[in-house]
Amino acid sequence: MDEIEEHEFRGLVFVACMFIGAGIGLAFGRPDVGGAIGMGIGFLLMGIIRAKKIKPTPVTISLPRSLGQITLSIMGILIIVCGLCLLYKPELIYPYVASIAAVILGILFLLAGLIGWRKKGE
User: Fold this and answer.
1) CA–CA separation, 111 vs 103, rounded Å?
2) CA-CA distance, 11 to 7, in Å (whole number)?
3) Is the pTM value of this prediction over 0.70?
4) Digit-coded pLDDT (tens) for 39-52
5) Cα–Cα distance, 23 to 33 (Å, whole number)
């Protein structure tokens, strides 16, 4: 691995720490403080990585073959529960239908990305 790849690795660690810090800060209502703490941790990790000469290793994610079946089963259960809620008290479910759909779509995109990532690494 050459110096350019090591430099990129350190940069990615810094950016990841910065965004994680900002996200945690946002959860507590102070993304500026969280971002500053994340940047400090990122700079510290960049120095440690450079001093220890830590090199990135390839990451492989293996998902069980039954994951698709489990995901479809969970989605089926959620749809049945939503349908029952619509029958029982429709005003309870209408505000949440869009958010549930967004979460399910997000999970599906995440799973599709992870599965594609694994296939690319094979």
Assistant:
1) 12
2) 6
3) no
4) 888 888 888 877 87
5) 10
